[in-house]
Structures are given as structure tokens and as C-alpha cells.
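User: Teach me something about this protein's shape.
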Amino acid sequence: MQLYQKRFAGFATLPTADPNIAAEEPERMVNEHGFKGGNINGHTRGRYLDDKFFWPILEHAEALKVPLYIHPTLPPEPVIETYYAGFSPEVTSGLSRAAWGWHIETAIHILRLIVSGAFDQFPGLQIVIGHMDEALPFMMPRIDKVLSPNVTKLNHPIADYLRENIYYTFSGFNFTSTFLNLYLQVGADRIMFSADYPYSPMAQARNFLDQFPVSPVDKNKIAHGNAELLLRL
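Assistant: First, the predicted structure itself:
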């Protein structure tokens, strides 16, 4: 990365088990090494970022004006044993990982974070998730209907947080119908191009981008403009 500083950037891996150290790590990595935010690999032994134990991380990220990327991880072991076990190893692995579990796990993490009031406490906090939204925008109208502000006691409807505090990347989900749902729900300003290399080829992601059914202005935002603004590239 140091050899090609104009071409590569990164997110700092955060030791979330110790929130005070994890809160300080992005500042060190951003200011001293030019990193662009922090990376958190899902829950920490079954504890999610809605737990105020972790809120120093959120507070420092907001103050530093850098995003946190929440990357999928396996659901907690009891969830795997209850919902995904009992099939062949290949099917169990697929259900609990790339076919379903990773994505639903991340979606639940985001919803827990919203419902906890974290974004009311830290309104400038920005979170990035992948896989063309982890199924959240598809459920957005239903979530808003059931979990209204009268129920959640939040300052805004949940859809507002999904549109104002969350960014969404492709991450190998090169599916037009999935993209259009995300695009219609959150708009071009919240979507960022990415590939899931080496699991999904860069050429495939680029071909998908080239055939987008959106305007040139929106395509430029998605291809690079939004990332440039968010990550100050």
C-alpha cells in the first residue's frame, strides 16, 4: 500500500473486544497511515454494536468523520445449530454463510444498531455494508410499517437511518433486480461500486456496472463519486 498510495487505501481492523483501544485505533491508522475508516467483522462473541459497551467505537468514528465497515461473519453458534445444521456439510455451510446466514446476520446487526438509538446519539456516524444491501431495502417498507417511531421511540422512521447513515456496496451481487430495488429505495447517493475479488471476478463486476439502467450522472456517483466523498479520496 505504501508503494502505491494513490491507488490503494484501506480500513483498519478494530479489536472490538476492547472498545476503548478499538475506538482509538482508527485515529492512529487514519492520521498516521492514511487509512479511511475501520472494519468490524460482525458480532463479537454474540454481542452486537447496539451494546453500549461498544459505543466508544461509534463515538470516535463519528468524531473522526470516518465510516465503519461491518463485514459479515457467521451467526452465533446457537443460531447455526438451531437453523442451519442437520444437512450435508456443503448445504449447512452455504446456508450459514454465503447463501443466507452472512447476509441476514449483517442485516440484523444494522437493525439492532438503529433500534438501539445509536444513530440518534451519533447522527453523523456512517456505516458501510456490502452485498447490495444485505436484503434490508427489500424489507424497508415492512420494517417501517411495523417498527414506527411510536414503537421504537426513535427520532425518525427506520427507513431514514437506512437512507442517511448506511452506504451499500455491490460485493459480488451483480444482479439487476437486486440493484434496482436498492436504487429505488435509497437512491444513487448511497450506493458504491465494489467487487468481491477474489471470490467474484473484477471483470464481472465491471461488466455489470457498464450495463446499469441509470443515468450517466448516477452511474458516475456509484462508480466512484460517492466513495470519493465518503472516504475523502
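Now, about its shape. The chain has a mean pLDDT of 94. DSSP finds twelve helices and six strands in the chain. If you'd like, I can walk through any region in more detail.
User: That's plenty for now, thanks!
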